[in-house]
Structure formats: C-alpha cells, structure tokens
Design brief:
Strand order of the largest sheet: 3-7-2-8-9
CATH topology: Rossmann fold
Oligomer: single chain
Bound molecules: 2'-deoxycytidine-5'-monophosphate
Largest sheet: 5 strands, parallel
Number of strands: 10
Shape: globular
Number of helices: 9
CATH architecture: 3-Layer(aba) Sandwich
Distance between the termini: 4 Å
CATH superfamily: P-loop containing nucleotide triphosphate hydrolases
Order of helices and strands: EEHEHHEEEHHEHEHHEHE
Radius of gyration: 17 Å
C-alpha cells in the first residue's frame, strides 16, 4: 500500500476488539509507525506496582510526583514492537492480570492522561502514524485524516482476550477475563475525562462476526474511498 502524503490514522475501540492487531498490520503495509497508547497507560501502572515491589500500588500523589522520571520508549524489532520503561523491556510484564486490575483506574486520572497525551501528540507530529487507544480520534489526534472505531460484544472480546492469554501462558479463567472486560468497559466508558467515545467523523466497524482479514479489508476499502491511499 502506498500513501502519497503521509497521514495519521486513529483506531479507537473497547478492549480486545482487535485494534492492536489491525493497527500493526496497517502500519506494516504503509511503512508507518505503530503507537500502542494502551501500552503507555500499562507502563505507568507497571511503574506504580514495581515501586512497591508488586505488593500493592503506589499512592497516587507519589505516582504523580514521579511522572517526570518515567521514560517510555518503543522500539521496532524483528520480533515485533518492544516497549521500554526507563530502559527495562516491559513488553510481556504489562500484559499480566495484575496490571489489568489497576490500569483503568490510573487511566482515569487527568494528570496521567495529560502526561501521556502530550507524548502521543509529539510522536504523531511528523505524520505517518497508526495510533490505537480509546481517545485518539476524539482527544489525542482530533485532526487525524482517518479514524476508525471498532466495536464488538463483550462476550466475543473476552473470548479473544482469553485465547490470547492462554497462548501467552497466562492462566486466567474465561469467567474472570469476562468480568475484567466488563469492569474495564464500565470504567473506560463512564470516566469524566476522555471516555471511550466514537469521534463524530470516525468510520465504525462492528467486528463481532468478522475475521481480522475481513476487518482489514473494510479498513483498506475505506482508506481507498478517502482517496488518500493507493495500492
Ligand atoms: O488497550 P489496552 O487494554 O492495552 O488499554 C489499557 C487501559 O488503558 C484500558 O483500561 C484503557 C486505557 N486506555 C485509555 O484510557 N486511553 C487510551 N488511549 C488507551 C488506553
């Protein structure tokens, strides 16, 4: 796929709608940079847990004071994208259930959001970025030339997350994954700041009954219809 002039592509949606798989694939085809903003909120959560040796989470005021000490970096490798926190590869650790348990609460904090949104906007300054998250089309990149919003039932999303975790060797029951998905949906959609919401100009895709290939094809068609991308 070729994009004559580089653009920014925003992909928003609830947990386990396939956002990151699709964003990675789009970025690869277009030779764009992929930015997983959920991983950034997870990195902050990892930091807050690590500070207390993973026994409990750091007090919020202490965490907020420590934010300037956090250096989050992405690196593309043959194995895929790696995320570093202050030089430590945390790519696997941020997917653990302990992180899932706390991340939505920290993601509802205005100061943490501001700290990360500024970094996300800086990464996208030169265009050529595919960014996924919850507020990319509405808050982070409201002027993105292309926006997607993915939705699916909570049961199918929990099933997908459960299978992903099993493959990664994370042992959590389907029931527990579903409860966590429902809990995070509630927090993400009802928080005061930047709740999960479709941007008015986003192209919505219900992925419940579609395979990843079928969703990707819809995205490709939409990009062509915008006249920005040629193949
Ligand atoms: O996509 P994910 O499951 O890795 O996201 C982790 C958490 O971070 C999830 O609770 C939603 C939150 N998040 C957010 O509030 N805003 C974003 N742009 C990305 C993620």
């Amino acid at each position: 796929m070729i994009s004559e002039n580089k653009i920014n592509i925003a992909i928003d949606g609830a947990a386990a709608t396939g956002k990151s798989t699709l964003a990675k694939r789009l970025a690869k085809e277009l030779y764009y940079i992929y930015v997983d903003t959920g991983a950034m909120y997870r990195a902050v959560t990892y930091f807050a847990l690590k500070k207390n040796s993973f026994s409990n989470i750091l007090q919020l005021d202490q965490l907020l004071k420590s934010l300037p000490d956090l250096k989050i970096e992405f690196k593309s490798t043959a194995k895929g994208q790696i995320i570093f926190l202050n030089g430590e590869d945390i790519s696997n650790a941020i997917r653990y259930p302990e992180i899932n348990l706390h991340v939505s609460t920290l993601a509802s904090n205005a100061e943490i959001r501001k700290f990360l949104v500024i970094q996300q906007q800086q990464i996208a300054l030169n265009k050529g970025v595919v960014m996924d998250g919850r507020d990319i089309g509405t808050v982070v990149l409201p002027h993105a030339e292309c926006k997607f919003f993915l939705k699916a039932t909570s049961e199918i999303r929990a099933q997908r997350r459960y299978e992903e975790q099993q493959k990664a060797g994370i042992d959590e029951s389907y029931h527990s994954v579903l409860q966590n998905v429902l809990h995070r949906d509630r927090l993400d959609a009802t928080r005061d700041i930047s709740p999960l919401k479709k941007a008015f100009d986003a192209f919505e895709i219900d992925v419940t009954k579609l395979t990843i290939d079928e969703v990707f094809e819809k995205m490709r068609e939409y990009l062509i219809s915008l006249g920005i991308i040629t193949f």
